[in-house]
Amino acid sequence: MKIVSRKSLDVQPVFDIGLERDHNFLLDHGYIASNCFNKSHSVAYGYVTYQTAYLKANYPVEYMAALLSSVSGDQDKVQRYIANCRSMGIQVVPPDVNSSGEDFTPREQKILFGLAAIKNLGAGPIAAILQARQDAGNFTSLADLCSRLDSRSLNKKALEALIQTGALDLLEANRHQLMNDLDITMEWASRRAKEQASGQGNIFDFFGESSNTKTFDTAPKTTRVQDYSSQEKLRMEKELLGFYISDHPLSVVSRSARVMAPINLCDIPDSSETKIVTAIALILDIKSVITKKGDAMAILQLEDLTGSTEAVVFPKTFDKVKHLLEKDKRLMVWGKIDRRDEQTQLIIDDMQPIESVRMVRVELTREQASDRQVLQQLKTALNPNPSYSNSNQGNSSYGRNEPEASNKIPVIAAIEYMPKLVRLGNQFWVQDEETAVKALQKAGFKATYDSLVTK
């Protein structure tokens, strides 16, 4: 029923859906009760929550594939859910011309990227691929694909998109080779189709062996070339899918880094943090800006495994970090979350390439972790002169409140039998990892140092 007007009737008895006796949703003169649906909504939402929790727990691959398909038009949500898949141990793999459907498809313990998510590949080409696959089985080579789908069904731009996103990797793993062979293969397939139409088929066609793989051995090929680098493959995947699928530039970051930089970029809009936060991110885009005073600054688009956010580098910080501002640069960034003007941004205070970031790791037993005296010894070893550090903002040998990025070496603790690592506060981060480790070992702790990036 559509509400066309409303009027206060003071206090009136209403009937809820939770009552066993007869009930209705109307008050006098046909007006709708304002709270007649509360309990029904609670029950419905509760039931849907139970259903989705059951599916996620018992059919995680199928559930996540359906969830990804439902938000396929929203890149931010897709990226966040792909990150969820990684955390659940579910691999989201590049599309495959012989297996992928239009949407995300569960396959064993993996999820295949849907063909519809590939740029430059419209509904018509996708329908043609699926129909050809249904009629005559899987494609065996690039020549087979070009022969069974003419350029009106699958043009060069669409074929390039399939190659560059890895959809033909199982036919030929060398994507660079496929790109080199594409033009002459399409010309060969077009010429062959015209010959068949005019009754001039080759000898294999004459003996009815057109589906035999020998038919495609006659397709011309270019000189063998070296495949694209991993970085170039990722760049093309990002351009055509909107995401890194086969790998991610930040996947080399060690598990310890998640403790050092615990915030995900997708969580920044909802974060309640007001102090300095640490994140590991990739620079996607850089916009240079000149202020009214003539000072240079920059607006960055940052991305991690979960999503992206806008970051601002004001002039004072810009002068210090401008040599690091390059597209595709992987960084550990320090900054503050700013929510002015109904927009959430990360205000960059400092940054450092992840390749140069070091960390100190100290191992503790459960008894040590719960012993106040031991923890005080740990603090003293890391920061032997806390009063001096607090008063001089970072001139101590070991610890400081907010050290410069070049001196920011985090300290993490691995506690016995605990699956998660613990990050010590910024005031206990150190300037020199070797000096800090020696001090910890001298105090009786088992300590080592390592790099942020895994080998």
Q: What's the domain count?
A: 3
Average per-residue pLDDT, rounded, comes to 81
Task: Return Rg in Å.
Answer: 30 Å
Helix-residue proportion: 25-40%
* Broad structural category: alpha+beta
Question: What coarse outline follows from CA principal-axis ratios?
Answer: globular
How many distinct helices? 16
Termini separation: 64 Å
Largest sheet: 5 strands, mixed, barrel
Low-confidence stretches: 206-211, 388-407
Biggest sheet strand line-up: 4-5-6-8-7
Brief overview:
Helices cover 36% and strands 17% of the residues. The chain has 455 residues and is an alpha+beta fold. β5 (296-303) and β6 form a beta hairpin.
Structural features, described:
This protein has three domains: 183 residues, no CATH class; 95 residues, Nucleic acid-binding proteins (OB fold (Dihydrolipoamide Acetyltransferase, E2P)); 95 residues, no CATH class. Helices cover 36% and strands 17% of the residues. It is built from 16 helices and twelve strands. The chain has a five-stranded mixed β-barrel. A four-stranded mixed sheet has the order 11-10-9-12. A three-stranded mixed sheet has the order 1-3-2, with helices on one face. β7 and β8 form a beta hairpin. The longest helix has 23 residues. It is globular, with a radius of gyration of 30 Å. About 6% of the residues have low confidence.
